[in-house]
Amino acid sequence: MSSTTTVTPVLGVNPRLTTLMIAAAMSPLAINIFVPSLPQIVTHFSTTYATAGLGLSLFLAAMAVLQLIIGPLSDRFGRRPVMLGGVGLFIIGTGLCLFAPSIEAFLAGRLVQACAVAGIILSRAIVRDLVSREKAASAIGYVTMGMAVAPMIAPAIGGLLDEWYGWQASFVFLGFLGAMGLIALAANLPETNAHRGAPMAEQLSHYGKLSRTPAFWLFAAAGSSGSAVFFAFLGGAPALASGPLGLSPSQYGLWFAIGAIGYMIGNFMSGRFSERVGIDRMIRSGALITLAGCALPALLFATLGLSAAALFGPTLLLGIGNGMLLPNTTAAAISVRPDAAGAASGVIGSAQTAIGAILSATAGAVVAGGEAPMALALLIAGASLIATVFAYACPRVSESTN
């Protein structure tokens, strides 16, 4: 299956995977394109690094809340209108950031920008609307390649735009892409939800049903703790890069691409092999590779000291592991109750971003407090160990979800 392949037609619909990749990529792009510009934003608004860094953690926190709402809304009213509304609000939030007169207004714009998260959870729900559990893992692997390409290029683009035109240029770029994405989705995204129309009370009741399903929570916990590793790194790495390592914004962006390339490789492996080797094996393998990538920085810091290669090099393994772990845990979790795919996808995304926001803020505080780099290395290693424990618990219940 290539990026131009279409998902199996069901109910007369035939959405292209490329369209879903565009939708899934917007939010990851917005998360970290501005990260290389944090020092410049601090200067522009005469604020502190911790306050400017809230542009990341608040964005993640808003994503966590929104995903609990977007899932049931899409189950009730359909995937298409909710997706288009989320992208439209993203464009408005981008404008607020671009013309913000204060750091408070900038942070408010970031909260509105978080509505782009509709693209992440609804692309997964759309896939599950159309294909079986095993095929969903494969298709989600390809869709989330869009989420990998976005963070791979975002810091590099953000860093270059910052050096050439100033930090605002990144938000001009986001606004343009949001407008182009809205046009593409409006033209090429049909409705896929055959179960829409039930009252919101019934849709919200799915949360209660999911809460009583151990299999769902095990898969969700494995994926959430695995993705939290990435957010912890994202929260602490910029301060190390611009501080003791002395990297420019564009240099940071290029080094950061290593992990995103790994994530894209892992997504490709999920798309190619999940249906063939099975979801459980992909989950275990992904968790172990993630753990290896997260243990290496602590070892390298202890033996060789801090360097850009020691900080960013192991993220290749981290990315590959996450690229295998996340699509498969997501496909398994949302297959527990296919009639509540939107709600299930919302809970998964909310858990991932909520835990990510906590670890991102924790990592930022650790680095700002002068305890880095070893403390950051131990933080991500601990999160990856937890992910591995949950990953090995998942196979004991996977048969019940087939």
The whole-number mean of residue pLDDT values reads 80
Which shape, going by the Cα principal axes?
Answer: globular
CATH topology group: Growth Hormone, Chain: A
How many distinct domains? 1
Please, how many helices?
A: 19
- The SSE order reads HHHHHHHHHHHHHHHHHHH
Tell me the span between the first and last alpha carbons.
23 Å
Number of strands: 0
Query: What characterizes the major β-sheet?
Result: none
Q: Structural class, please?
A: mainly alpha
Rg, rounded, reads 20 Å
Which class in CATH terms?
A: Mainly Alpha
CATH architecture label: Up-down Bundle
Helix content class = over 70%
CATH superfamily, please? MFS general substrate transporter like domains
Task: State the low-pLDDT regions, or none.
Answer: 1-14, 397-402
Strand content is: under 5%
SSE order and pairing:
Layout: H1 17-32, H2 38-44, H3 49-52, H4 54-77, H5 79-98, H6 103-113, H7 118-130, H8 133-143, H9 145-165, H10 168-188, H11 200-211, H12 214-242, H13 249-277, H14 279-304, H15 308-312, H16 315-334, H17 341-368, H18 374-393, H19 395-398
Helix pairs in contact: 1-7, 1-9, 1-10, 4-5, 4-6, 4-7, 4-17, 5-6, 5-7, 5-10, 7-8, 7-17, 8-13, 8-16, 9-13, 12-16, 12-17, 12-18, 13-14, 13-16, 14-16, 14-18
